[in-house]
Amino acid sequence: MERIDLLVTGIGRLVTPPGDDPRCGQQMKEVHVIMDAVVAIREGRIVAFGTAKDVLDLLIDAEIAETIDVGGRMVTPGLVDPHTHLVHGGSREHELGMKRSGISYLDILAQGGGILSTVQSTHMASEQDLYDKAHRSLNEMLLHGVTTVEAKSGYGLSLEDELKQLRVAKQLNDTHPLDIVSTFMGAHAVPLAYKGRADEYIDLIVDEMLPKVAEEKLAEFCDVFCEQGVFSVEQSRRILLKGKAYGLLPKIHADEIESLGGAELAGEIGAISAEHLLAATDIGLAAMAKHGVIPVLLPGTSFNLGLVKHARARDMIDTYELPVALATDYNPGSCPTESIQLVMMLASLNLKMTPEEIITACTINAANALGRGDRIGSIAVGKCADLTILDAPNLAYLPYHFGINHTFGVIKDGNVIVWDRTIVAKESGREEGAR
Ligand code: NIG
Ligand code: FE
Predict the structure, then answer these.
(1) DSSP per-residue codes, 1-42
(2) What is the DSSP letter of 425?
(3) Are 261 and 271 in contact (CB under 8 A)?
(4) Which listed ligand is nearest to 99 at the C-alpha?
(5) Average pLDDT over residues 291-301
């Protein structure tokens, strides 16, 4: 071992799920914990990790360019947020009163508000506006310890505006230290201009949007809001299979409010993940387990919508042995928060997940929901050196001491980008616009 670019020392507790594969069922509880640890990094990859004694013996002749001491803090793999609607214009606090007076999420949408209101704001916004707003959210996520985030389109609902959102996500990926993974979600709602003509809008998605998104390589995944009054199972199948033919792996907003059969569809078409799942049936969960679909649960959304019902995480883990992942669902309507740590707390409170299950869901299972289990999501030799440094003595402390940010530092691809709760990285390329 001749050269080390960065040696991270003074790790009081190094915590990671093992391996690259999704951790299913009871495996979600098995995390490796190493006390008094170090991590050695070269060219952005982990080259050694373990107890300080073992690794320092190994590095006795190595030339170490830089050493940082994290002061006895806990270190986990960089957190992965595998479901967000990152790029959008405006906000929807004007709907708060309607929500509080008891008007449902789907009723607000049916009245032309909700997603359709954000579609209008996104249409009016310039690329620079969208970039600046999403950039601020990415900084917030980073400060909370997230190193990779998924970003869906779906507030364009026209060829031009869907491409606008996706191009902004691509620019952000090129310039911001976080990795952004794009999902095309032209089927997020039926636009007002196509009211009552959903199938004609789907023609536009499959004939014009998908070919262009694929040609410009603007997304890796294709997602559909399969829900009563939005897109049916048949319509979702048509879009997702066409997306698959263009090389976009299927994801699906499934059974969030009504038991429509979205989980069953996810199994049938071999989706990489199915999201929400509050109303998923046993048959649906069994189909997901049979076909290796990852459930991405979004407890911030059910909390913020004031629902009494929550996703059945315990059944998913204990009965169906599924590899549960967690995400914020950050969006301007059902879940306006970038905080994955709030989601961790809600996963404990409302989904009854254990601290070990929660960290597995936010790291290796989330990484696999983005097809990146071989690169990120765990601390292992050869994987990207993405690490989150936490001001917390142990995993249980994260959901226990709630409503604050525990992240002290973040290392991304071997570079220290957050230190002492401050972003210290320089950015490449495009600058943030003046505000
Ligand atoms: O995942 N359910 C559909 N889409 C988003 C909400 C989008 C919005 O309300 O703007 C979700 O919750
Ligand atoms: Fe969503």
Answers:
(1) --EESEEEEEEEEEEE--SSSPPPGGGGG--EEEEEEEEEEE
(2) P
(3) no
(4) 1
(5) 98
Over the stretch 323-363, which tens digit does the pLDDT of each residue have?
Answer: 999 999 999 999 999 999 999 999 999 999 999 999 999 99
Query: pLDDT tens digits, residue range 124-142?
Result: 999 999 999 999 999 999 9
Banded model confidence at residue 433, pLDDT cuts 50, 70, 90:
very low
Q: What is the pLDDT of residues 93-124, one digit of tens each?
A: 999 999 999 999 889 988 888 999 999 999 99
CB distance 335 to 298 below 8 Å: yes
Yes or no: say if 263 and 277 are a contact pair by the CB < 8 Å rule. Answer: yes
This prediction has a pTM of 0.97
Q: Which atom of ligand 1 is nearest to the CA of 225?
A: 3
Q: How far is CA 201 from CA 192, 229, 370, in A?
A: 10, 14, 27
Q: 333 CB under 6 A from ligand 1?
A: yes
Nearest ligand 1 atom to alpha carbon 83 = 1
Helix H segments across 334-377? 340-349, 355-362, 364-369
Give the model's pLDDT for residue 216.
98
Q: What gap in Å lies between CA 334 and CA 84, rounded to an integer?
A: 11
- Look at phi and psi of residue 307 and say left if phi exceeds 0, alpha if psi is from -120 to 50, else beta: beta
User: How far does residue 374's CA lie from ligand 1's centre (Å)?
Assistant: 29
